[in-house]
Amino acid sequence: MTTEVPHVSSLDPESLPLESLHKYWVDLTHDGFGRPVSVPVIVAVGSRPGPIFGLTAALHGNELNGIPVIHSLLERISLKTLTGTIIAVVVANPLSFERGIREFPDGTDLNHIMPGRESGKDSEVFVYRLVNRVIKHFDVLVDLHTASFGRVNSLYVRADMTRMRTASMAYLQKPQIIVHNKPSDGTLRGEAEELGIPSITVEIGDPHRFQSEYIKRSVAGLRRVLFHLGMLPTRKPIEAPQPIICASSKWLYADTGGLLEVTPRVYDILEDAQPYATIRDAFGQITRLFESPHRGIVIGKSVNPVARTGSRLIHLGHIADDNSEKLVKREEIVDSLAPNF
């Protein structure tokens, strides 16, 4: 049996009693009937004051794996042993979520227009209010994403690996891959960093599906971050391999069109000049063979066999080495993170 969830215009987590759980619809804009367009938010307040840990999922409406990550994490947390507050935006783009699409209904990618505008088109006002009514309360942010239509991802993290706090959060997630990536203007991660909120992006596999193994690993990673922040008591960590660190990454694109086959799997290592994709014409003849421009790891790839000129092929990570930009190394933070590192 469910209880009615109240609608509010903004959050005030500091006013909530200790050791309490709250569910809200936070109203941000209105549709053509004057009905509120709202995001579902869960607020878990621990038994002692502490940091506010923010989680966001489904900022792109077809990226779903983050939703069960939030549910599973909160189901396993005791408010008695929680210090501080967790605020989880379960679906940050509800209009696109219910339509099963990536972009906002006006065609805008919400992760390109942060922090929006107080007065503007629907999508701009929506993200402006999301930032000001919800995100600004966070002390830390983990933004949960997946690949988009026609593509698949590994489990990887994007983080500024030159900063100790974000590098620590990235290592604690123990994904398959970490990509050094300074936050960009227009992204939620970038806006949070502008507000002084340390932030990482966790890319959890593929769109439009729930992937249990990636979900389980992501929950375990979030628990490690919460322990490191002093928000959860220590317990025996779930073992996971150490991630491969990439100093940079880039998508490779098709310079012609046809029927595409990308042969390597995500997380495969490609050597320099190794063939990785072919394009055939309508008669089955190979018209283009693509080779890796350098040694790297496959972070994500296209699985759509219909490719036009300019279509994405693979997301190739440049594995960090001694000549890479100075990145925070695991050894520099491991002592402060034991035993959960």
Layout of secondary structure:
Elements: E1 7-8, E2 20-30, E3 36-45, E4 48-57, H1 66-75, E5 83-89, H2 94-99, H3 122-133, E6 140-145, E7 151-153, E8 155-159, H4 164-173, E9 177-180, H5 188-194, E10 199-204, H6 212-228, E11 244-253, E12 258-262, E13 269-270, E14 275-280, E15 286-291, E16 296-302, E17 306-307, E18 312-319, H7 330-337
Parallel strand pairs: 1-2, 4-5, 4-6, 6-10, 8-9, 9-11
Antiparallel strand pairs: 2-3, 3-5, 7-16, 8-10, 11-18, 12-14, 12-17, 13-16, 14-15, 16-18
Folded structure, characterized:
This protein has 341 residues and is α/β, with parallel strands linked by helices. The chain folds into two domains: 7-228, Zn peptidases (Aminopeptidase, 3-Layer(aba) Sandwich); 250-319, RNA polymerase II/Efflux pump adaptor protein, barrel-sandwich hybrid domain (OB fold (Dihydrolipoamide Acetyltransferase, E2P)). Helix content is 21%, strand content 32%. The protein has seven helices and 18 strands. The strands form two sheets. Strands 1, 2, 3, 4, 5, 6, 7, 8, 9, 10, 11, 13, 16 and 18 form a 14-stranded mixed sheet that branches. A four-stranded antiparallel sheet has the order 15-14-12-17, with no helix packed on it. Helix 1 (66-75) crosses helix 6 (212-228) and helix 4 (164-173) crosses helix 6. The longest helix is centred in the middle third of the chain and has 17 residues, at 212-228. It is globular, with a radius of gyration of 21 Å. The relative contact order is 0.13. The mean pLDDT is 95.
Gross morphology: globular
Number of domains: 2
User: Under the CATH scheme, which architecture of the largest domain would be assigned?
Assistant: 3-Layer(aba) Sandwich
Mean pLDDT: 95
Strand residue content: 25-35%
Helix content: 10-25%
Span of the ends, CA to CA:
40 Å
Outline the biggest β-sheet.
14 strands, mixed
- Quickly give the structural class: alpha/beta
- Order of helices and strands, N to C? EEEEHEHHEEEHEHEHEEEEEEEEH
From the alpha carbons, calculate the radius of gyration and give it in angstroms.
21 Å
Tally of DSSP helical segments: 7
CATH superfamily name of the largest domain?
A: Zn peptidases
| Low-pLDDT stretches | none
CATH topology value of the largest domain: Aminopeptidase
Count every beta strand, where a strand is a DSSP E run of 2 or more residues. 18
CATH C-level category of the largest domain: Alpha Beta
